[in-house]
Amino acid sequence: MFNPPKTRLKGNHNVLSSIDKLAKSNVRHFLFGIKPEEFLIYGHTHRQYVDMENRVANSGCWGAEDSNEFTYIEIIDDVPRIMQY
Question: Which of 41, 67, 60, 61 is nearest to 52 (CA)?
Answer without folding.
Answer: 41
